[in-house]
């Protein structure tokens, strides 16, 4: 945005505002300069304002001061004040603004706190709290809400009339958007209801559709489109594209109208009015222009509308997929889908989530549209990796699930590559991403454990990355899930592969190296933050997970294979686990594993393992405490241990 041009416009506007009485009643005499000014200001609001010179921002602050001092209730001035204040606040909040510069601007705007509060919408309360830290946030919220309610009483009828009559369209759209959202329950704030009852929504829809058509046809250079544009321009004098400035104005009208329609869908009344067979094709048509970079904002707003539809309504969700072909359109976007990656994964998340549990999408829609879009395009955006993995997790209960399709689009490799990106820097974001990946793998193995089927994740494909994670992580939840996965894979993987992976050696290091605390208590259930912060320790609970890995590993091993895992430290950490065993279930699993070792090859045991067990002082282990109540099954396992001791 040309800040020099904006400066010129602000100076003209300030001068003309001072001559208001000479220009006729109200602000109608300033219509042209008002439109030029709002176009310029919105351009500044939506670009990187932190690079603006101090003099430019000072001029905008002077504009806020001038408008605040003007005694008129014309909503157009409110819109100018709203955008001007937003530019200042955006500059204050910009990541590139230093702490010193932010403090300086807080001092400069402090005397104008009442003006910033007056020109704010309810969405801006958090920004105001940052800008004016000395004012209580609840007090700020109350003041803003009081101003918005007063503005509604004074201006809503005029705004509705202007929209229905095609007057001051851009200002009316922006002013109405500032009133629609307050955070109050619908029963306490019926702005949308009033707009719907006045039939102004149909006018907004017409403005949205016509302005979009003008812009889309204007970018189409063929003769047919030119003819259509000429017809539209005859109907829409306010949208005629005669120069770049008027095009910017139409662009803002289009952007604002679709943003406002999106806001309406937050209301039950607005949702029911907009989501119907006669209006949905209008929104679908907007989406079909996804490749036009000049139409990104209305396309994005329309994506959000479809997000709201599939999140809220099972019936309309199926309608937009089956009747409109929403997923087919998205799948056909190719690389353009990356421009809207966040919106698309949110739609996919809702379509595969709880709203559709009772009536899931046809598997063909998922296999032909969702999975190809994820695997061929959206995986390139690492910022949405967690959402992609969660979508895959949500597919697991689908009655027609075919995991081969995930492999077809290399989504299994995407999960492994995502895990491999972890470098040891543990953050909440990394916890959620790693947890999503490991829970997905666990879930897939849980539903596809039949060894005769083509297993999506194998010991061979996972062992390297999981062993790396076991050496880097100390989070209890993540390590627990990884050990659980290994216990499943160890039951079906070739023993030579397990031995070659050094998994046993890795677990041995975890248990005996002192890296983790030895704790004879069990982990209690924890809240979300506790799950993130809880460190792994060697206790009864973790012993159970480790023992399952060991138990599955030693099944059907040859004597030579058993000897190799003993060399990797198997017996050492097996005995180290004994003192932390404190529940019947873990003790029985421990005994079963011990029995497998002893009975596996009696001669080899006598020759090699017996001596090592004695050297490791297995005979000196304290018997399990009496708190493990004896029972018939437990007594059987106790006898098993006694027999082992006799052999020793």
Number of helices, where a helix is a run of at least 4 consecutive DSSP H or I residues: 35
Query: What is the top-level CATH class of the domain at 450-648?
Result: Mainly Alpha
Rg, rounded, reads 33 Å
Per CATH, what is the topology of the domain at 450-648?
Leucine-rich Repeat Variant
Assign an overall shape: elongated
Beta-strand segment tally: 0
What is the strand content? under 5%
CATH architecture of the domain at 450-648: Alpha Horseshoe
Q: Write down the oligomeric state.
A: single chain
User: Tell me about the biggest sheet?
Assistant: none
Mean pLDDT: 85
Helix content: 55-70%
Class from helix and strand fractions: mainly alpha
Head-to-tail CA distance between termini: 85 Å
Low-confidence stretches: 48-52
Topology diagram in text:
Elements: H1 3-18, H2 31-45, H3 54-69, H4 75-93, H5 99-109, H6 113-118, H7 125-131, H8 137-165, H9 169-180, H10 191-197, H11 200-218, H12 223-235, H13 244-264, H14 268-274, H15 280-287, H16 296-312, H17 314-322, H18 326-331, H19 341-351, H20 363-376, H21 385-394, H22 404-408, H23 411-420, H24 428-447, H25 459-472, H26 476-489, H27 495-501, H28 503-512, H29 528-533, H30 540-554, H31 559-567, H32 570-577, H33 584-600, H34 602-615, H35 632-647
Would you mind describing this structure in some detail?
- Among the domains are: 3-119, no CATH class; 450-648, Leucine-rich Repeat Variant, CATH 1.25.10.
- The model is unreliable at 48-52 (pLDDT under 50).
- The protein has helices spanning 3-18, 31-45, 54-69, 75-93, 99-109, 113-118, 125-131, 137-165, 169-180, 191-197, 200-218, 223-235, 244-264, 268-274, 280-287, 296-312, 314-322, 326-331, 341-351, 363-376, 385-394, 404-408, 411-420, 428-447, 459-472, 476-489, 495-501, 503-512, 528-533, 540-554, 559-567, 570-577, 584-600, 602-615, 632-647.
- The longest helix has 29 residues, at 137-165.
- It is elongated, with a radius of gyration of 33 Å.
- With 648 residues, the protein is an all-alpha fold.
- Helix 2 packs parallel to helix 4 (75-93), helix 11 (200-218) packs across helix 13 (244-264) and helix 25 runs parallel beside helix 28 (503-512).
